[in-house]
Amino acid sequence: MSASADGNGGLALPGLASFACHPAHSRGRRYTEAEAPTRTAFQRDRDRVIHSTAFRRLVYKTQVFLNHEGDLFRTRLTHSLEVAQLGRSIARSLRLNEDLVEAIALAHDLGHTPFGHAGQDALNTCLKALASDAGLVEADGWGFEHNLQSLRVVDKLEERYPAFDGLNLCFETREGILKHCSRANAQRLEAQEPGGVAARFLHGGSPSLEAQLCNLADEIAYNAHDIDDGVRSGLLTLEQLDEVPLFAHYRRQALAAHPSLGGRRLLFESIRLMLSEQVYDVIDTTRAAIDIAGVQDVQAVRRASPLVAFSPDMRERSQVLKSFLLRNLYRHPQVVETTDRARRVVSDLFALYMSQPAELPEGHGQPQAQPQQLARAVADYIAGMTDRFAIREHERLCGAVLFP
Ligand code: MG
């Protein structure tokens, strides 16, 4: 890892706390680059993410509802924008680096397969089955995991620059993208990049506050927008949501202030109040935790336990909402039925490209490759697909119409 060449210490960042990530002290990029004259290293990362191919694909990738089920449901793109908005808002209050938060938030889901978690599960199953047939053991870290894939997109799969693969993002942005990692995968990453983004999964430690914040902003965003999308789809009702104390509380508050409010406006107002309250809760709780820990710089943050958090009460109430959404929305028979078909699209495509690698477009794996290398190339290709491209490609190659 090179020292930061474009930390841009010259661009003043007034108001940034000492425990925030300062671009001038970045741990740098994997390939040294000259500074940009008008942007800090993290602004530049954010811009690189926005201009990437993987980012544009997010618009046609499922969050919960398949893209063609309705124009108003969240997609991975609008979800990522909402995470960035919430993240920036909280970052500003805590005097953290908003640009870094935005870069991480916009990149955090780049590695998602088509069809959301169903696609990821299917791809993981395919790769694991192939590994066990080939006698590889689980410890090799073989499989598919979207966090790891997001890092792979920004480190390797984007082909935009003459001198390197990937987007060559700063350590801090990559650290935030890799929010979970199994020990086996961490060992593999650590071997390629000693002391790099996977080290904390082997030796302990926390990521930057900006990375911690994106993680929580992700949760705040999807809990809120999945209520909205759930009701919009007709799979959840406002009455049913009364069993969720967190939501019921703000619905009562909305009605107390506006007794005649009903329908969508009541839903929006309740979600708005809930979002605001959760944001204030994170800001207050985190500010207090930072004070108590007495962290003065990023090194101290990395040595400390995670500091960005909900209060215990909000954590518990948010957990109840999460399990409600799991039971009533993510496992709703209608959602499950769609995801079953989505799983089939992904597994069929995987089997087909493995047996007929010539069907892969140029640049996606060599026909003579070893099965393991071919499987990774196939997984990369499928993971990069949008929902609708995967559906079309499945129809073309497998002849079945699963999504008429
Ligand atoms: Mg997300």
What does this structure look like?
This protein is mainly α and 404 residues long. 59% of the residues lie in helices and 0% in strands. The chain contains 17 helices and no strands. It is globular. The structure holds magnesium ion.
Give the SSE layout.
Blueprint: H1 41-50, H2 53-57, H3 76-94, H4 98-107, H5 116-133, H6 146-157, H7 171-177, H8 183-192, H9 199-203, H10 209-233, H11 245-257, H12 263-293, H13 298-303, H14 312-330, H15 333-355, H16 371-383, H17 387-398
Helix pairs in contact: 1-4, 3-4, 3-10, 3-12, 4-7, 4-10, 5-15, 5-16, 7-10, 10-12, 10-14, 11-12, 15-16, 15-17
Bound molecules: magnesium ion.
What is shown here, in short?
This protein has helices at residues 41-50, 53-57, 76-94, 98-107, 116-133, 146-157, 171-177, 183-192, 199-203, 209-233, 245-257, 263-293, 298-303, 312-330, 333-355, 371-383, 387-398. With 404 residues, it is mostly helical.
